[in-house]
Amino acid sequence: MNSKTAKLLSKYSQRKDIPEKELKREWLSFSHTQKAKKAQEILAELAKK
């Protein structure tokens, strides 16, 4: 996980009131394609707010 991803997950966890540690564990379990898809979903959701 690079710093850009860590910052993205941190912002997302704060907005959604999800523990950051839990979110990072979930992220590390994803495959490369799942990570790309989830990152796009998170970016879209953060852009809405």
Average pLDDT over all residues: 93
Query: What's the quaternary structure here?
Result: single chain
- Compute the gyration radius: what is it? 10 Å
Distance between the termini: 25 Å
Helix-strand makeup class: mainly alpha
* Secondary-structure element series: HHH
Q: Catalogue the unreliable spans.
A: none
Shape: globular
- Percent of residues in beta strands: under 5%
| Approximate helicity band | over 70%
Number of strands: 0
* Helix count, DSSP H or I runs of 4 or more residues: 3
User: Major sheet: size, sense and barrel closure?
Assistant: none
Topology at a glance:
Elements: H1 3-16, H2 20-29, H3 32-48
Question: Would you mind describing this structure in some detail?
Answer:
Helices cover 84% and strands 0% of the residues. It is mostly helical and 49 residues long. α1 crosses α3 (32-48). The radius of gyration is 10 Å and the shape is globular. The N and C termini lie far apart (25 Å).
